[in-house]
Design goal:
By secondary structure, the protein is α/β, with parallel strands linked by helices. The chain has ten helices and 15 strands. A six-stranded mixed sheet has the order 5-6-7-3-8-9, with helices on both faces. It has a four-stranded antiparallel sheet with strand order 11-12-10-13, sandwiched between helices. The two termini are 37 Å apart. Bound molecules: adenosine-5'-triphosphate. This is ABC transporter ATP-binding protein.
């Protein structure tokens, strides 16, 4: 269990983290989500003991020191590789930093190359790698010593879909082997796909944290989208909270299935007039919007409520 208790951090006199408290159970995968400048990287650097001048306490497995080199793997946001040497040599370099040597070092480098899907590029210089390959190798370097706690700072920024898929598979595999993962990202859908927990960081504060499904239930209402020929809002106004959307209507309701049934009944006689009827599942994006009044898109705050709805339907 990793316990973050009342952590506050200033850069000179600028407050960037304010009374952060989080409990991260062993074996969980927690998404740390927030817009640019929210303080995600700063918090992760504190957890990895890269930043040591902060107030508060970080405790790993009830020990006094956070920095337990052997159990912690940190994947930085910036690519941290030596470009002029091969993938294999980069892995060996980081392995040695973590105390590996000899046969064990070679074995791990070979295993990690397999895990990150770069075995066939083992001897190639990193200089010639694509962005996605570098990202995968960046992760591989943090896994050489088989850490049980892995901290990843936006590991999928600017990569191709194939590398993203590969990274997701790696993370799922790490979860299956019991690793604890802290995953900072701008992408809500990544958190939905990978994590069981989430913490929202906004302007240096945790605005909410918990199980993803619990938060979605707590902060959002399901909607039904309906599009039909000549449909007037007055025909729907008893069904829930209505808003216009994409030449149709969104109906916010606690009873979406009953509402869908009612709409089907309305069009029973003439189904050709009904163009679309859909249940819109609330997303994590909607939770963030409810909590902050802003939308998280590519890490940028936007105050467009309408576009939040658009995100819900697509
Ligand atoms: N070394 C530093 N010195 C001074 N200010 C800093 C330093 N590093 C970060 N900051 C500032 O601290 C705040 C939090 O930055 P941080 O990088 O932790 O946010 P973030 O949520 O990771 O953002 P991003 O998603 O853009 O990486 C920002 O306002 C940033 O400009």
């Amino acid at each position: 269990m990793l316990v973050i208790h009342d952590v506050t951090k200033y850069y000179r006199n600028k407050l960037v983290l304010e009374h952060i408290s989080l409990d991260i159970p062993s074996g969980s995968c927690i998404g740390l989500v927030g817009p640019n400048g929210a303080g995600k990287s700063t918090l992760l650097k504190i957890l990895a003991s890269i930043i040591q001048d902060y107030q508060g306490k970080v405790q790993l497995n009830n020990t006094k020191s956070t920095f337990q080199k052997k159990v912690l793997g940190y994947v930085p946001q910036e690519i941290c590789l030596e470009q002029s040497i091969s993938a294999y040599s980069n892995l060996c370099f980081f392995g040695k930093l973590y105390g590996l040597s000899g046969r064990q070092l070679k074995k791990r480098a070979t295993e990690v190359l397999e895990e990150i899907g770069l075995s066939s590029h083992a001897k190639n210089k990193v200089l010639h790698f694509s962005g996605g390959m570098k990202r995968r190798l960046n992760i591989g370097c943090a896994l050489m010593h088989q850490p049980k706690l892995i901290i990843m700072d936006e590991p999928t920024v600017g990569i191709d879909p194939q590398s993203r898929r590969h990274i997701f598979e790696m993370i799922r595999h790490l979860q299956e082997t019991g690793c604890t993962i802290i995953y900072a990202t701008h992408y809500m859908e990544e958190v939905e796909q990978l994590c069981n927990k989430v913490a929202f960081l906004d302007c240096g504060k945790i605005v909410e944290q918990g199980d993803i499904s619990t938060l979605i239930q707590k902060y959002t209402t399901p909607s039904v989208f309906v599009k039909a020929k000549n449909l007037q809002v007055t025909a729907l106004d008893k069904l829930g909270q209505i808003s216009a959307y994409r030449q149709g209507f969104l109906i916010k309701t606690e009873m979406p299935i009953a509402v869908m049934k009612q709409i089907l009944l309305m069009y029973q006689a003439n189904t050709s007039e009904l163009e679309r009827l859909e249940l819109v599942k609330p997303r994590l994006e909607d939770v963030f919007f409810t909590l902050t009044g802003s939308e998280l898109r590519e890490g940028v705050h936007s105050s467009s409520k309408e576009s939040s709805k658009i995100g819900g339907v697509s």
